[in-house]
Write a structure and sequence with these properties.
The protein is of the alpha/beta class. It contains twelve helices and 21 strands. The strands form four sheets. Strands 3, 14, 15, 16, 17, 18, 19, 20 and 21 form a nine-stranded mixed β-sheet that branches. An eight-stranded parallel β-barrel has the order 4-5-6-7-8-11-12-13, surrounded by five helices. A two-stranded antiparallel ribbon has the order 1-2. A hairpin with a 4-residue loop joins strand 1 and strand 2. Helix 5 crosses helix 7 and helix 8 packs parallel to helix 10. The protein is globular, with a radius of gyration of 29 Å.
Length: 487
């Protein structure tokens, strides 16, 4: 990946255990200081404006790695979507990337990321064909599957790439042989015309003697270099089930050792494809805030159930393919401790914890430290205690609920229940009857927000400002700003 100059990592205050200049979360005064310095840093920039606080980002990276207890942490790129920040996380100690589409994975491999696991299956035949034909991507990328259909699509792409490579090799060999048989004085496809009639310009005859008409030996047909196998990973269902109850996401149909062994055996019989490992995503643990005793109970039961099932599933895959698995992936930002400690897990995945969006405020496993923000300018004051900001309708994916709305980071203000985050205008209401002093917002002021989810914010902006203290130290493009839209 192309390197770029960046300001250094933040320092720690050994007496407090916190980063220098780091504001606490959840009190008006520190939040006011935070939003004030963001406004100072971006005061000369037009809004809407996206910002990542580098001190907070770096501190979050350190926390995620520490929470994994030495187990490698793979970076979930969907939760970042800024290539410079993907690079920054890798430089900080993350190990490899989990991409969300084959095209993204191929692009990242071309930028120098040498270990990219695609976290989701794909049926995009064109993307699979391009990846299979790309020698750099074939070595760097692992594709996700959970069915024979996925495997067959990959096998077709691999076979077509092999045939194309063989045809290219044969054509190259034929061209070389034809050039070797060409009469002296003819144009040599490997060099310049010898106007003296002696073969290559400035060269002796091919038999080591000058001039003459000694025959030129024919070259053997070129043998195409072997194409490396394209690696795949099986996505295994990690939900918790009680009788007919299903707690977790609806993803993979692979659940039992028999399910895994059946598909793994088919991988072993498929030419040009190799099984690298298994992935388990316990969404009901990693993706749910610790909002109630019931949720915490579900998490404990889920961890216990998966710790029991996972070794059997790994053994079934290993026995089916006849070799050890290189990779057993599990977890997310919300479950790093339990996933990293699970038997047989070789790596965990995290990404959202770098930005710490609004949906992570209620987690108890770690201390939220928001690092990504967006600023909107106040353009109207329709009534006392009310202002209206330009733009802001950045609602997160997931079930339609208030939890998917942006969080207002500017203290003393809130979204309205009737309008929420608007398409072109976002009204804000003061939490106090008459907003004055430090809580006042007036026309031309900047109001600050956090997205409910992490990487989705960056799909709204072409560039993001990297802030340290009250200064913008760099401006970098998002995926969107680089003209990349992977879905």
């Amino acid at each position: 990946m192309t390197s770029r100059h960046r300001a250094g990592h933040g320092s720690r205050n050994p007496s407090s255990g916190r980063d220098e200049g780091e504001e606490a979360v959840g009190t008006d005064r520190p939040a006011s200081a935070l939003t004030a310095r963001l406004s100072a840093a971006t005061g000369q920039l037009s809004a809407p404006v996206a910002v990542v606080d580098l001190d907070r980002f770096d501190a979050n990276a350190r926390d995620l790695l520490a929470r994994a207890g030495g187990v490698p942490v793979r970076l979930a790129s969907k939760s970042v979507r800024v290539r410079a920040l993907v690079e920054r996380a890798l430089d900080a100690g993350f190990s490899g990337v989990m991409a969300y589409s084959p095209r993204e994975a191929q692009w990242l491999a071309a930028q120098g990321v040498d270990d990219v696991l695609v976290g989701y299956p794909s049926v995009d035949r064109a993307a699979l064909a391009e990846l299979a034909a790309d020698p750099v991507a074939r070595r760097a990328v692992t594709l996700m599957i959970d069915s024979a259909t996925h495997l067959d699509l990959i096998a077709d792409a691999v076979e077509n790439a092999r045939i194309a490579a063989g045809a290219a090799g044969t054509a190259g060999a034929a061209s070389s042989a034809e050039a070797a048989r060409a009469p002296r004085g003819a144009m040599d496809t490997r060099g310049a015309m010898d106007t003296r009639g002696g073969g290559h310009a400035g060269a002796e005859g091919s038999n080591g003697q000058g001039g003459g008409g000694a025959p030129v030996p024919e070259l053997p047909d070129a043998i195409p270099a072997p194409i490396p196998s394209l690696q795949v990973c099986l996505d295994v269902d990690a939900s918790l089930r009680f009788a007919s109850a299903h707690l977790g996401v609806r993803r993979s149909p692979l659940r039992t050792p028999e399910d895994v062994a059946r598909l793994a055996s088919r991988v072993a019989r498929t030419r040009g494809v190799r099984l690298r490992g298994l992935m388990f995503y316990e969404a009901q643990v990693a993706g749910l805030p610790d909002s109630s005793p019931a949720v915490r109970l579900v998490k404990r039961l889920s961890v216990r159930d998966l710790d029991r099932r996972r070794p059997e599933l790994v053994a079934a895959a290993r026995d089916a393919v006849g070799h050890d698995l290189d990779l057993v992936n599990s977890g997310g930002t919300g479950s790093l401790e339990t996933s990293a400690a699970a038997p047989g897990v070789t790596e965990v995945t995290a990404g959202s914890g770098l930005y710490t969006p609004g949906l992570f405020d209620a987690y108890r496993a770690f201390r939220p430290r928001p690092a990504a923000f967006f600023g909107l300018d106040v353009v109207r004051e329709p009534a006392s205690g009310w202002v209206t900001a330009f733009s802001g309708g950045y609602v997160a994916s997931g079930p339609a609920a208030t939890s998917r709305l942006p969080r207002v980071a500017t203290p003393g203000w809130q979204l309205t229940g009737s309008e929420g985050a608007g398409e072109v205008q976002t009204p804000l209401r003061s939490r106090r009857r008459d907003a004055r002093g430090r809580d006042a917002l007036r026309t031309g002021d900047r109001a600050w927000f956090r997205h409910a989810k992490a990487g989705e914010l960056m799909e709204r902006f072409d560039e993001v400002r990297l802030v340290r203290g009250s200064e913008v130290v760099d401006t970098v493009p998002t995926y969107r700003g680089e003209g990349k839209n992977f879905g």
